[in-house]
Amino acid sequence: MDNATLIGLYRDMWLIRAFEQGLEREFEKGNVPGMLHTGLGQEAVQAALAWHLKATDAFFPDHRCHGINALAQHRHRGDGERVMAELFGRSTGVCSGKGGSLHSADPRVGNFGDNAVEGSYMATVLGVALAAKLRSQPNVACAIIGDGTVGRGEFHESLNMAAIWDLPVLYACVNNGYAISMPVGDGHASADIVDMVQGYGFESRQLDGNDIIEAWTGVKEAVEHIRSGAGPYFLEFKTWRWQGIFAGEFRPEAEVKYWKEERDPIMLAGEALAGRGMDQAKLDAIEQETTDLIEEWIAFAKDSPEPDPAKATANVYVGWEVASR
Ligand SMILES: Cc1ncc(C[n+]2csc(CCOP(=O)(O)OP(=O)(O)O)c2C)c(N)n1
Ligand SMILES: [Mg+2]
Predict the structure, then answer these.
(1) Range of the domain at 157
(2) Which of 100, 79, 81 is nearest to 34 (CA)?
């Protein structure tokens, strides 16, 4: 990886972290409605995916994917602040404030949205992939899923159908060690998800999800494979999320310390850049610039009007409006 790419990814990871930390702060103040699952600690996975996916591809984000949603919006439309406004439930949001965290979508940037039923888009992604294949488009349809999704029926139905129809699907499995507080090895037949995928007969690889160079290179190879028409590809990113899913969740103290202090993906990328001769002042400037940009996005969201109640049913169902409500 050349220096310019590594610096670009370092910036993207800081953008994600600043986005999530700003969001978390505002959530704690009561300014962000609904629930909040952050992608803190998993920035390298999202930055690597966002780098290689084009606006003409499709990705289905999971519940921790504000980062890739914001990066795609920022990169392809120049309006990342509209993802922030969506999370604040404001009319300027990408879904006019109706989507919030879990339903934030904008197909113009390739974001086909999440929903509250974990694993459901493992089925939907097949349709998007089949459409690309029938139209002979070199597009990738990507499902970003947590390790918890592996226990759902749709997971296996999806992998089987992608295999027999040779569909251009990229499965990006974020194995962060737990589904709520269930360790992966307790909830699934194998703690290494790639081992379970072998039987479907297509390419699969396990990557260090906290090493941006390994994650970026792995996604690059997978995307090139899919665009060439060679069929589906499964990537398992081994990583760890900083946030427990609820306050009472138990994870051993030594484990928390290890992942935060020794395996922070941004810290590791900073060390790699320092090893290539980049001075600390330049790294600090990237952190400051991205944090300042996110504060502008938060201010935009806060200054934006609440949605008009008269439009509550607009764009919910195609061609169906309840004007009287
Ligand atoms: C079908 C379904 N079952 C249960 C839930 C409740 N739920 C929300 S997040 C979650 C855990 C998901 O774990 P994982 O996929 O590993 O993602 P992580 O939160 O670790 O990133 C569960 C069980 C849900 N949303 N949908
Ligand atoms: Mg998990």
Answers:
(1) 3-303
(2) 100
Q: Is 76 in the pocket of ligand 1 (CB under 6 A)?
A: no
How far away, in angstroms, is 180 Cα from ligand 1 center? 7
Backbone angles phi, psi at 101, to 5 degrees: -65, -50
Residue 264 lies in a domain: yes
Residue 178: CB within 6 Å of ligand 1? yes
Give the whole-angstrom CA distance, residue 218 versus residue 5: 15
Both structure tokens of 30 = 């009561």
pLDDT digits (tens, 9 = 90+) for 183-236: 999 999 999 999 999 999 999 999 999 999 999 999 999 999 999 999 999 999
Q: Would residue 87 count as lying in a domain?
A: yes
202 CB less than 6 Å from ligand 1? Answer: no
**Torsions phi, psi for 263 (to 5 deg):** -125, 20
Choice from 180, 241, 251 to test ligand 1 binding pocket (greatest atom count within 8 A of CB) = 180
CA atoms of 102 and 104, how far apart (whole Å): 6
Q: What is the pTM of this model?
A: 0.96
CATH assignment at residue 250? 3.40.50.970
* Count of structural domains, the chain: 1
Asked whether residue 188 is assigned to any structural domain, the reply reads: yes
Q: Is residue 237 part of a domain?
A: yes
**CA distances for 33 relative to 7, 27, 142, angstroms:** 34, 7, 28
- Å from CA of 176 to ligand 2 middle: 5
Tell me the per-residue pLDDT of 86-143, one tens digit each, with 9 for 90 and over. 999 999 999 999 999 999 999 999 999 999 999 999 999 999 999 999 999 999 999 9
For residues 41 and 259, is the Cβ–Cβ distance under 8 A? yes
